[in-house]
Each structure stands twice: as structure tokens, then as C-alpha cells.
Amino acid sequence: MLGHGTHVASVIGAAGLNSGSVVGVSPNVTLVPFRVGVGISYGEHGWTVDGCISAINYATSKYGTSEQIDIINFSGWNFAYSNAFKTAIENYPGLFVCIAGNGDGADIDEVPNYTGSYDCDNQITVGAISKNGAVSASSNIGAQSVDIFAPGEDILGATSFIDTSSVSSYKTDSGTSMAAPHVAGTAALLLSVNPQLTATQLKAAIMNNADHASQLAGKCVTGGRLNAFAAVSSVAYQYTESDGNICIDGLRSNIKPNLTGSITVPETINGYPVTEIGTEAFSGLSVQNVVVGSNTEYIGSRAFQNCSQLTSLYLLRPSSLGITGVSDTAFSNCPGLSAICLESAGSLPGYKSSADWSAYKSIITLNGLPPGWTDYDIFSAYDNFVLTTTSSPYPYSFAIRFEIGGTYTLEYFLRSPGAIRVYAFDTDTELIYSFSDNTGYIYETIVLAENTYYLFEIDAGHEGYFGFGIY
Asked: Which helix (H) or strand (E) holds 182?
């Protein structure tokens, strides 16, 4: 391969174990290079129609054999219309990924550019976006002809010895030639999850899970940019769609046994919000960390049962919305799970012990439990919880959401003089109670509204505990 092809190939599948720290979209993919021009040097666009057609036909001939080529990335352009070229693409059983072209913003709906303007069912035409998500100045557009946009500016990739313009083996390059291989690499990831996917299924997964953006509206079919994670998630999970909502039922059987480390539950699948994690969806997984998307409202029975290595679960749903339901058995037999952390932009992150999903209250803290604090306990006789500490920085803030309003007894112990402040942070953090300069065992009566989060700020000494009760 010449320099251009080497760079494109590295965007698709660079292994990552290299001095340039270049990692392709699908680093374990097998690459098959085709040279479709003759007598050209680096930087010249010498692709020939006959050469391209021969390459596509060769890939077609290998389909169904042990040498099957599932995806063709074509980062070349500037051809006149060729019926033979279009027929070759249509006859190819795999996915044909090509560029929209670098015509300085030309609309290829109005002035066709080939191969980008061929409208084949197994073809994806890709435009380029910049780092800020806008259409690159050089990239063509087309509400009907361009399918999706992908990163295409200042893309770091490998070059080759023939490229005398660079003393390094790696350099940045820009153009729709760099955008198309991002899509081709994503298609390879999809096939790694489900090798049975057809070209039209690959195309649908990529296009249906694009991130819609106002600055791309009307400039491509999807009106959005590539989201590799969402596309892969759409084929990795087993799910049920009902009334525009997604319930995740589990993972594909070929993925679950080998999954370790971390897993992130997507926000959406095929444009629909993931609102529920179903019964036994992730039971028995060998993962340590799970992140649940912000649309998830309910976690079903035994959803994470027997996840013996699970140590943390992050719920990204904003605290102002909350999780509307969690089954009592959702985390049964998860001995390593000591905390569930709620995190979201614009609202307080938080904590809730896996030991209790009480109908009365849930506790969340800014950074998990304060250093040195033990987990809270539920006292069945008093419906109480207690936080204890022997060494912790102050002031320290945490929050409690009271699902059932009423009169509560606030009990706390402070070794040295300090203060407790209570804010209703759902209403611009309004200070509603302040108890100051107390030591020893303190009991205060406070009235709290239902389904409201309250921020508690402790400013005290080095030892104490804090609790609520309904007496």
C-alpha cells in the first residue's frame, strides 16, 4: 500500500502496539489491501475505474469462502458515472463504505460525485466532520446522497516509507478519506459481535444509531455523526422494544462468557431510550464495574444476581428524576458490591447501599462514603440508618431523598463543636435548617417533603455518627 492507503488502513485497524500510539477503530481486524491504480506515486489520485471494479469483483468471488471479505472501504473518488462500477457494488454481498468527496462543501445531490452518489442498498457514503462536530470545510454534503458523518480532520495514522514528506512513521491527515474508515472499522466491530449480520443490517445499525446534531441536519440522510458505541450496543444486547422504550433482556450468548472489566449500558438503542434492565439481564457476569445510562428508570429482579466480582454500579440518571424502581433481588449474591453511585451532570452524584432499597429513603453522597466512614445499617426496630467515622475531612456533604414525607428525628453525635446544615437542593439549594455549636448526642425534629432531595452538610470534629429515624 502507498502512503494514503496505509493511513486509511491504520484508521480502520492499527493494532495499538506501536511507537505512534495509533489505535484503529477495530484493532484486531484482518485487512486485505487492494491496489487499484498503476504507475502512480504518493499523493497522486491515480485510481482507475477498471482497477476498482476488478477489486470489488475479486471480493465478491471470495464471499462465502474462508477468505471472505465482509467490508470494502473505498477512500477514492472523482470518477464519472459508470454503470459497470455501480453494478459491481450492487453485486458485492458485503458492505461498501465510500467517501462523500472533498469538494469544499459541494452538494452532491445537485452535482453528483461518484462513487459517493451511487445509491446502492449495501453502500454507506461518509462525510467528514471537524473536532467541534461541524462539517469539515472540504467535505461534500448531500441530504440524500451522504449517509452519515464521521471524524475526518487531523486524524493521526500510519504512513509509509514512500511518503518522503514525513520523517516519522505517523502523521495527521484530513479529508473524507479519513472519515470513511471510521465507519468501516465500526462495521468490523459489529461483525465481531455478530458475524451473521448482513450488509443491510450493518448499514442499518450504523445509521439508526447516529448521534443527531443540529449542525448536520439537512446535510446527510441521518442528520448525524457516527456513534460506534451505540451501533455496537444495538447488536450486542438482546432487548425488547415497547411503546418506544427499550428493555434490555441480556447480552448475546457469544459475548457474555468472555466479558470482563467494565460494561456501559447505552442511553439509547436504535434511537429509542433504554428505560429498563430486565429480569436476570446481567446475572452471572464477570465484570467489576457497570455504568447504567441516564434513561434507565427500572432495574428488574435478579438483574445482576451472582455477579460475584461486581464492585461498583454507576447510575447516570439525574437525581432530580431518580430511579423509579429497583427490585429487592436486583443485586442478590453480589458480595463485592458495597456501593451504588449516582452521577450526572448538573446534579449531585450519590451513593446508595446495595443492602437496602427502602421505600422510605435513599442516601447518596458526593464521593461515595467519606474516608473512614463505615457503611450505614438499617435498624428494623427504628427504621434507622447510621453513618460513623473516626477521621474525615469537614465540611462534608451528602444528600438524602425522602420518598415519604413527614416529621423525622435527626440524631447525630459530634465529638467537638460543629454544625449541621440542611438544604433543599431541588429548589436552588435553599437552606431550611441549621443546627450549630453542638457536641455529644443531639436530637432534632425536622419536617421533610416527599420525593425531595435534601443536602446535608456536616461541619464538625473527627468522630461522630449521623442518623435518621421515625420514632
From this structure: helix 176-193
